[in-house]
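Dissemination and training. As part of the outreach component of the grant, students in the summer workshop were shown how a complex can be specified as a set of sequence lines and then modelled as a single object. The example used during the hands-on session is reproduced here so that future cohorts can follow it. Participants entered these lines:
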Amino acid sequence: MRMLFGDQSLLSRFISVIKVALAVITILFPSQAVSYQLAISNERSDEVLLHDAEGRVLRQLLSCKRPRGMLVEPVNQDLWVACSDEDAIVRIDPESGEVKQRIAGFSGATNLALLGSEQLIVSNEGAASVSLVDTTTNVIVSQLPTGNEPDGIVYSADHKRIFVASENAGVVHVFSSEDFHQEALLLTNLRPRRMAINKDELWVSSEMGSRVEIFNAASLQKMDRIIFSPRGFRSEQLTPVDLIFSSDGLTAYVALGAANHVAIVDVVTREVEKYILVGSRAWGLELSPDGTRLYVLNGLSDDMTIIDLESRRPIASERTGLVPHAVEVVNR
Amino acid sequence: MPKSYYAFRAIIDREFARFIQQRTRLLSALVRPLFWLLVFAAGFKSTLGIAIQAPYATYTPYDVYIIPGLIGMVCLFNGMQSSLAMAYDREAGSMKVLMTAPISRRQLLVFKLLAAASVSTIQAYLMLLIALLFGVDIPLNGLLVALPIIFIVAYALALIGLLLASTVTGMENFSGVMNFVIFPALFLSSSLYPLWQLEESSELLYWISLSNPFTHLVESIRFALYLQFQPWVLGGILSGAVLLSYLAPVVYKPNA
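and obtained this result:
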């Protein structure tokens, strides 16, 4: 060092200059760290765990039998959890884990969606129906028949229609969200699981059809399909389940189940741009609030792969509980 | 300029002239690992990606996994080939001419090894460049960080080759040793498959592979590519290289 800087005072001056430069850089380019956490329901270990944004387990939020679908209430940020083997749904504070509300009477509650600010719609896997529940009175106000094993629930962009996928029946039921009458029945490929709405398009994943089918959410006509075929996999391994759109609606991410990959799809061209290797049986998906990360739950390897969406590379896989099912961003 | 500098320049120039002129040698040095990468890895692409092991933070495709092993393969083959050249030099008598240079035998051998390691490193980076062109996901910052490690590994492998060349007399015997050294070193290591997979098949093979120095050379490259270091392994490689460099002139007899 003496050879480089001559004497100690010059070295300390150099260090001071570096410190000042770093301080200027910090002021000019403040770090835009987004603060949020993740809640993950784990079917086999009967728990909902809280993770930090890097995927590390922080603590257990809830213990209930076979927790599966979850949603975050937009107003109070509380977390609703479908506890399938307790035939109940539970509302908890996602920070403390305090149970604030519990409503029973759902046969194998699988997934849930918000209907306005005071009603929830819950798919009952064991009863081939969805239940409408008033969260202010804890009363199930209506039961709508669906096909066997109803799973995913979504709304049209104008909130006038409710779509419910019945995986065992191979159909999507279309209900009016005003009077809840059945408007139509969409025939899909084998085992429709999850759906996502992008403007006027309804995307439905077909678990046994190795594809996503695209319907017009207004006319209910089938518009297109995307068949997945990453190299080295047989079609029966391609079992898409969860799907999610980027906030600009231009990119779709599809978890390919037993193919252990996530597909990145260009929404406009319908082309698969990239397949990203993740863990075993990729199902649940969630985007970070700033849209730069995709969280992928791997049901059979009991972990979660974090994908950096700018480089489109997996950056880490972190342990979860046993058989992780759904992931939601909480405490943002 | 010291005399040793001119001797070093002469040896380096000779090694590079040989490297450039022997185009088939360069071609075969690249074709061998690329064959593994583009053909073998394509067949095994979906077999890996089922477990995470250090230094990887997530699931790894097979073509990414074997990159450090292929770098090791390039260095291993070139190290052995340089040794073969030294055996040839010894038989042809050109080594005796080199020995007339005004430097010690130890310096001469170390310069030969440095030249061989430089050629190995260049070959390894040419292979990496082609792999990148074929879309293999290699961390670019790791390529820079791994450079000194790849050079040290190349030096160590050339040194092992030199010691082999010292103990074997006659070209025919040496080519036999190459077969008995290169293939076991390659296949009984973590270069082409992770050791946990070998352990599932045979615990004996696992322990043999774990005690294979080539495994640790490859792993040091693997860790460096992902900006991680195993100080004990690296220290072992460096101290082994220094010790063997010291012993090399004792065992290498240019007129054997």
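The interface with chain A takes residues 42, 45-46, 49-50, 52, 57-61, 137 of chain B (CB under 8 Å). Students were then asked to discuss how this feature might be tested experimentally.
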